[in-house]
Each structure stands twice: as structure tokens, then as C-alpha cells.
Amino acid sequence: MSTPARASGAGEISLRGLTKTFKGPEGPIEAVRGIDVEIPVGETLALLGPNGAGKSTTIDMLLGLLRPDAGTVSVFGRAPADAVAAGAVGAMLQTGSLIRDLSVRELVAMMAALYPEPLAIEEVLELTGTAEFAGQRTQKLSGGQTQRVRAAVALVSNPELLVLDEPTVALDVEGRQAFWHTMREFAARGKTIMFATHYLEEADAYADRAVLMAHGRVVADGPTNELKAMVGSRTLRATLPGVELPALAALPGVSAADRRGEAILLTCADSDAAIRALLAAYPQARDIEINAAGLEQAFLALTGEPDGAAA
Amino acid sequence: MSAGISLTYLRYELLRTFRNRRFFILSLVFPLVLYLLIAGSTRNEHNLGGTGISAPVYFMVGMASWGTMTAMLSCGARIAAERAVGWNRQLRITPLSPRAYFRAKVLTGYAMAILSLAVLYVAGAALGASLTAGEWLKMTFLILVGLVPFAALGIALGHVLTPDSIGPALGGGVALLAFLGGTWFPITSGFFFHLGQYLPSWWLVQASHVALGGHSWPAKAWIVMAVWTALLSLLAARAYTRDTGRV
Description:
Strand content of chain B: under 5%
Radius of gyration of chain B: 18 Å
Largest sheet of chain A: 6 strands, mixed
CATH topology of the largest domain in chain A: Rossmann fold
Distance between the termini of chain A: 47 Å
Shape of chain B: globular
Largest sheet of chain B: none
Oligomer: heterodimer
Order of helices and strands of chain B: HHHHHHHHHHH
Structural class of chain B: mainly alpha
Number of helices of chain A: 12
Structural class of chain A: alpha/beta
Number of domains of chain A: 2
Number of strands of chain B: 0
CATH architecture of the largest domain in chain A: 3-Layer(aba) Sandwich
């Protein structure tokens, strides 16, 4: 269905040396301070970071909604505005709702009319799970339904690049799962997807690769499993009463030790070494679990957020 | 397709405007009710305030100018509402060009204005406003030309104001322009007479004189309209460009 003319050519998305500074009431705010990101065609990339990291500003520059102060954006070898004009880009922006006085089907058809090669309306409604309320007026939808229709609006052009800025913020758990199911299906068609999120588990579960941003810079960039390996940690949990924490922290492979009642919690740089040493020294340890750290820990370790200590 | 504007898109734009209840009340029902009240009681007046125009015709055109102004400017209210939900940003990541976007808005405004005109023409004819076909056409043409600056004004206001503030701004603005233009009663001398000459709404109302075979729009009218159109278009373009950021 996708035409070679739209997909071929210099086939990737690149952001090079992007910076953007806004005027603020107390002097300039450097929202983005020089970032470089390449996204190969067909990849699903998560742009991760806390609020104020510069994610939305980066996305606005990628879409051509904002002009960077410095640096270049190339979308499949074209300027963002040209890629947008060709109908190669679809997006769900962070804020926004729907215009009123149209049914869902009418709104999707209205947007489809703007594009050279849109998907069939029924296909979009089916794909986004909006078919069952397609006859409803847009102002009568629930938050979750609205978000699904926004996804339909983003997908209707059959874009090669789909950009989603914190798309699941307004959704409950079920809604989130349905949403990502849709996006996976769309990604399976060879589409490139970039999504911004501060839900770490989303990046972990749905992205091939994550770019971590903090304070307008990229602080880490790699496959999500590599990112976790970078901070290296797994946690080892065991029931082991009556042992001093400093002694545990001194075991090989252990970087930190903590206690939760009778249980101990060891953060391990090398969990294999740690488990051997633990059992050699304390054979009475039982109920042992070893877990890979979530991206959350990786994220906190890399961005150095002060409130990270709480986790 | 890229040069023109998709008819499907325009059709839905019209559809959603027609479905808006506020539009019907402000642009169609209000002027009609007022017209029936005012012109109904003065229907036998054939030389209103020394203008040489019969009351049903004078007020028909007066109300038509008010209704069409409202219809044109309500295009701004729709833009403000769209901006409030971030729809302008959504449209900017589609192939829809700013030019095509404006064209759709202006065409929609004109469709509404024509509907408003038609309603008042029917009411006018019912109250005894009788004109030749040529006079109807000429009058309609001048009114449609006279609406051009209001299209630009609507777009400019839509990009500057919020949905909360644009309602009162348009209501007050239209009332003032309508009053100074002589919509509700003729202004034939004094300060407001001289001020009125420089307002687009004045000449909108003056379309009635033309229709009655009186003096056509003088050069001054065309110049006033052209200057307002140029100024307001510039303002609209600036407001649109300034509005690229996130709201």
C-alpha cells in the first residue's frame, strides 16, 4: 500500500545538533541544548524523560511546528515541512482534543480528504478500535475514546513516520494496552514510530530503542535492554534475618544492600557473583529472587534526578 | 488537488458549521426576529428618515448587514475554538496549506452569510420590499464585496482571542459597527455620519441606496473597503504566523 516514492530515498530520520531556547520571564530557557538522534526506517523509538526534559520541544522541531535555533532535521531526506506536505508524517500531539459537531467517522473522513494516499476510513476505524462509536459526535466521547479518535486522525494518512507525544497519559490500564496493540500492528507494517513518554515501562515494553533526555540533552541512547545493562543492576531478594547490612554490601558483585523486615534487598552489578558469594557465606538464605531492574532504575541512575532516592 | 482545496474537506467544514446551534441563533434567528419587530411596525413608511427608501427595504438591508457581518465574524469564533483544542497544530501537520485553510474558512463564512441574506430577503419580500431582479442582484453583489474586510477581521480575531473572550468581543464589535453603519436607524448628519463614512459596515448598509437606483458606491466606498481589507489581511497574516507555538 505504501508507495516506493514516499518510502525510498535517504531513508531515515535524523536530528543533528538541535538547539532551542525560549524567552522566559526570568531569562532564557534552554529547552533543547544540542541533541543528535538518528532513527532508522521501521524502528520504534521511545523518547524518555521527565517533564521539562525537552521532549515536546524536540518533537515540535521534528514536525516542523517549531524552527530550531541551530541544527538540522531531516525526515526521510527531506525538510519536515516537505515530509508533512507529502503526507508522510502523522502525529498525536501532547495536548489537544477534537473539533466538535462531527461524528467520529465524519472527522476521520474529513482529515483523510487532506492526504494523497489515505487508508480506507473503515480500516482506520477498525485499527484504532473506534468503529463501535463511529457514529457518535466528537464532543460526546469519553477521554479514552477521544484519545483513540486522535490516534485515528494520526494514522489516517497512512504515514511512514508516526510521532506520538505522551499518547497514553489520559488512558487507563486497559486503554493503554489497547492503544499499544494498535501501534504494534501499525509498526508491523514497516512504519517508523517515535513516541515520547515518561512511563518507563512503556518504553521498555514497546520500543526497540530508547533515547533518554534530561535538561535538554540526550543522556543515554540505546536498545532498552542495553540501557538496563548500562546501569547494570539486578536486584537480589532473599529472606535472611540477623545479618548486618555492611557485611552484605561488601559481598562481591553487590553495589548496595537494604533491608525490608526479614528480607534483604541487594542491588547487584554482577548478580551471578553475588548469589554465589551470598550462599557461600549465608547458606540459610532462602526465598531467593533475582530480578532485572526496571528501566525506572536505569532512568533514575542516568538522569540523576534527586527524587530518585525514593525508589 | 494540492493547488485547490478538497471538496470533501470543505463539505465537512460546512456541515459542522451548520450543526452549530449558536450560529443559527446569532446569524439567522436574531436578525430575522429583530427585522420582523422593527420593519413590521414601520412597513408602511415609504421614505424612511428622508432617505427615500421604504422601511422594509432599509431595515432588510440593515439587518442583512448585521446578520452577514455576524456570519462572517463567527468564522473567527470557530478558529478560536479550534485553537483552544489544539486543532490548528493538528492541521499544520497535514498537507493543508495556510492558504487553503483560510480559503475554507472564508468560503464557509460566505456560505453562512448567503444563507442569512436569503432568510432576510424572504422576510423582506413578505413585508413588501419589492425590487427588480437587477436591483436584488446588484445589492447582493455589493453586500458580498462589502464582507471581504470582515472575513479578514474574523480570521485575525480568531488567532488573537480565546474562545472565552471572542464571544463578547464579536458581540460588542458587531453591535458597534452595526450602529455606526446605520443598521438600525439611518444616520444622515453629524459626527457619526462623518465617522461612518470610514467604516466598512457603513458601506455595507449603503448597499440599499444602490439597490434603489440611487447613487452607486462612490470611489470613496471602494477605497475605504480596499484599505480595510488590506489592513485587516495584514493583521490576519501576522496573527496567524505569530500563532505557530503551542497554546
